[in-house]
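Title: Prediction job returns without error message
Component: structure pipeline
Severity: low
Priority: P3
Assignee: unassigned

Description:
Job completed but the reporter wants confirmation the result is attached to the right record. Sequence as submitted:
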Amino acid sequence: MAEFESKLPVSGGKNHVFEACHHVVKALRASDNNLDANLRKLLSDLESHLSTFGMVDTKVEEDTGFSDMDERFKEAVKRILGWETNQSTILEAGPSEANHFFQALYEVQTFLMGFKAFPIKTNLKEKDVYNQATVALDIAMVRLEKELCDVLYQHKQHIKPEYLAVSSRGKDIVYDESFVSLDDEVVVEASSLEDDEQTLGFQAADMVDPLIIPHIKAIANAMFACDYGRAFREAFISVRREALDEYMITLELERLSCVEVLQMDWEDLNCAMRKWTKVLKIITQVYLPSEKRLCEQILGDFDPISTACFIEISKDLILSLLNFGEAVSLRSCQPEMLESFLSMYEVSAEILLDVDNLFSEETGSFLRMAFHELSKKLANRTTTTFLKFKNAIAANESSRAFPGGGIHHLTRYVMNYLKLLPKYTDALNSLLENLEVDDSIPEKTGQDILPSTFSPMARHLRSIVTTLESSLERKAQLYADESLKFIFLMNNFHYMVQKVKGSELRHFFGDEWIRKHIARYQHNVTDYERSTWSSILSLLKDNNDSVSTLRERCRLFCLAFDDVYKNQTRWSVPDPELRDDLHISTSVKVVQSYRGFIGRNAARIGDRHIRYTCEDIENLLLDLFECLPSPRSLRSSRRR
């Protein structure tokens, strides 16, 4: 595409001026026979002087020289005027036609520069020639400005589809005082989408078709050489800014005022914050570097104009992105904002080097400093929100026991929220490094102790869970039934262990923490069995009792068993594996004791006094902890 390069020399070039002056001198000498003798002598001396620079062939006849120049000038003007009403682009006409146009422009500009270097226009013919050249130049510049806009519009490149994945998640993380909104499904969905986004990757893109860059550069060279640089800049900036606005519409990120951001409800704000995070990364790591490269490719010879154009193109968008971040940082630090704040802070810190490279010159320093300031504000807000999240857990109190002794909403919320945090490890370690925290750090012994368990983030996560444990202990005291209290603690501690074991949280809590908490909920199982069944199973111990005593023991056992069944079928053990283990453990103790008692005393007690068979007891025990709306009728299990 070298043929598209402008042939216009830079204004002020020495050889160019000499050549232009020489042509004008010839034109003046041949244009009017009424020149006085002094002026004729002046022109003759000037022509002789110019010839000493090797720019004039003194052997060429003056009239022949002017005739050639006049024909070239007329042909050049004619070619330029021919494009005045042509609706197609010069680019479409092909390389040859483009070369002819730029050559014609070169001829006219050379002529005009000669007039400017030797401004003698004393008669109508001289003025007419000068005016023709001026009009032709103006028409050429208007044509090139239109050409610039048309070519940029027609050959703009669209960012590859994978960069446009700024979709909203199906479910948002929402906080309220009951901590009831974050369950396992939301976390799984959010995590899978984050994984998809992390594998997206970023790379530079061409903003316009690379094949037309030389043509646009030729237009730039021509317009700047003809002192129409301002018109080029304004047209170029306008088109590229419009392309950037169009791209932002594709990304579906609405430009919001500070007031609008402060008044948004949480669901809409959360969506906007996630979009902002993704868009900021795409814009600073893909779009703007590519836009800056385009400016350098076209205007690199006119620096710092290239930098100024790039800043003008990107400034409005950058300021709108910064304004959104500033507005969000003014919102109150509610716990539900933690992950979104973390995401915004992490990206704002990550792109600082990119921003420094994009706006390294002094003219862009105000944007560079604004990004650094925003990152600091987001850091402060994120830290404050993290601490408020922990305080909200500590402040969460209940006036009534949690129904069924299942997994409390607070436990689900906290553990699922913590599962979302490991992807922000670097950010959290940086933010929490200098914050004091109460945490029982495990001793650095054994093969299973990981360095990550001693990081600032690990210490704070364990501290949050310790706060959760204290809250659960207080909630357990609300149960009037001691056995249900142990079921509640068992469920919640088991849930906490499973969340840590089955996620990246394991690297922060450590195996020692896991072992201790497994032992803790197993101890709750033991406490439950003791508080529920110890007194009941003591009825099945006989010491050569009388028949009436044995029958009374059997009757009391069945009554106590009925009471346990009616109550504990309404209790909940949501984890199937834990529930099965509890069924097995209970059955081993209860069925074995009952079988032994009946085996030894069935004949003395009599069938009609034995209400349940061993199989009945075993089957009924399987209904425990199923959270049934109402217990199965016990009559169907009675022996007839």
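Comment from assignee: result matches the submitted record. Residues 2-153 form one domain.
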